[in-house]
Each structure stands twice: as C-alpha cells, then as structure tokens.
Amino acid sequence: MSGTEQKVALVTGAARGIGLATAQLMAEDGWRIALLDRDEPALKEAAANFKGEAISLLHDVSDPQAAPQAIRETLNAFGRIDALVNNAGVADFGPIEETDFTRWRTVMETNLDGVFLMSQAAIPALKETKGAIVNIASISGLRASTLRVAYGTSKAAVIQLTRQQAAELGEYGIRANAVCPGPVRTKLAMAVHTQDIIDAYHDAIPLNRYGSEREIGEVVAFLCGPKASYVTGQIIAADGGFESTGVGLP
Ligand code: NAD
Hints:
The chain is of the alpha/beta class. It is built from nine helices and seven strands; from the N terminus they run βαβαβαβαβαβαααβα.
C-alpha cells in the first residue's frame, strides 16, 4: 500500500496505554494513524515518539462537537478512514451506594457517549471504505463485580452498542466488533488495582498473568484488517482465559 491507498485508522485514547500500543502496531503494519486524545502533553509526547505516519487530534470524545470535527480533520489529512478504534476510556471503582451521580455520568460520558458519538460521526466515511469499528469494552462488561457499577455498566452497554452497529451497518459493508481486555498494567488499571486485586487476578486468570498493551493491540489490528473480513458483531475477550473460567472478579 502506498499514498492515498494506504489505509487510515482513527484511534481514540491514543496518547498512552492500549490505544498507543494499538496505534503503533497498526502503523508498523502500514496504516496511517489519527491519534486522538484529550491529554495534550501525553499526546504531544506520543506523537513525538511515534514511528509511522500520524496526525494528532486534541479532542475529548465526550464532547458532542468533537466527533464531527475529528472526522473532518482526519479526512482533510488523509482523505479516507478505514477503521475507527474507540479505545478512550476512564475507570471508576465503586459499589452502587458509594457512586454518586457525577461519578456515574463521568464514566458514561467517555466510555459510552464517546463511542456513540465517534461512531455516528465516522459512519459516512466508513461507508466509503467498507471500513471497521472496533470498540474497546472490558471483561468488566461481561461479568458483574461488587466494585464496578459505573465502569462495568458502561462496558456492557458498549458491548450491546457493538452488536447494534454490526446489525445496522452490515448492509454498507461496515463491520463492528468489540474487544474485552483482561487486566493490563496501564495507568488506568494501576490507579485502582491494589496488590490484593493483582494477586486475585493472577489466581483467577488461567494464564496467571496480566496482558500487555500489544497483546490487546494485536487483536484490535486483526479485527480492523482484511483478515477479519467476515467477522462482525463479535465480542472477543483477550483476557488470558479469565472470562471462560467462571471465577469471580476480584
Ligand atoms: P489509559 O488510561 O492508559 O489510556 C486511556 C487514554 O484515553 C488516555 O490517554 C486518556 O487521556 C484517554 N482518554 C480518556 N478519556 C478520554 C476522553 N474523554 N477523550 C479523549 N481521550 C480520553 O488506559 P488503558 O488501560 O490503555 O485503557 C484503554 C481502554 O481499555 C479503555 O477503554 C479501558 O476501559 C479499556 N480496558 C483497560 C483495561 C486495563 O486493565 N488496562 C482492561 C479492560 C479494558
């Protein structure tokens, strides 16, 4: 692939963690990348160290004005969008009685509204390329736990939104899938994972370890690319086997 034929992916939450690893991996596979994040210093640092062709988009996915603007900026720079990776997310650890409405809304605005808004704005461009949407959900959207009322509910909603997208957009050749990562040692996770939680995860995960950012990115890249051309509406856990075991979330 070269020039205008080279595929383009817009990755949200791309300044660090799973989003940055995914973007870097896809760039190594020949994709041109739009790195979107709301954290300006982190985005600048990510762009400065990025290996490959990329633009930076400083936006907050929970802002309804941001999505159409981000899509326009990507099309202006690259002329096409072949994949949208809705990865931006925030974590919140708290049971229902301790989660006030502000915390609940903060989680929903990024984790759910952001996916809705970005996907909706990207649809016309994705119709042109018969492109793909990959939503980053979580094992917390597959299983309930006593600590994740807002986060888990937001991710369960993203899983259903993915199925809706697959059902509605298949007629345009657009595929939509979700990846549910298990625990990965990113800033998001390590802000809430105590040593007890880390130990419990190691015990509960058949592979006995956390995943890496790139291990998640590989699954996302597969789902974005032509090798997954007949895969849509799927919810794929990349979690070391956690979801399949029936052992409860710590
Ligand atoms: P991270 O905190 O390292 O990175 C998240 C990035 O998203 C940051 O750069 C942050 O600035 C950006 N971001 C957050 N809210 C945003 C917004 N409203 N608009 C634009 N950018 C925003 O976290 P991570 O662990 O890499 O998480 C990436 C995704 O993976 C999230 O959706 C998260 O829920 C999911 N996930 C992570 C884990 C884990 O253990 N790390 C497990 C399951 C799912």
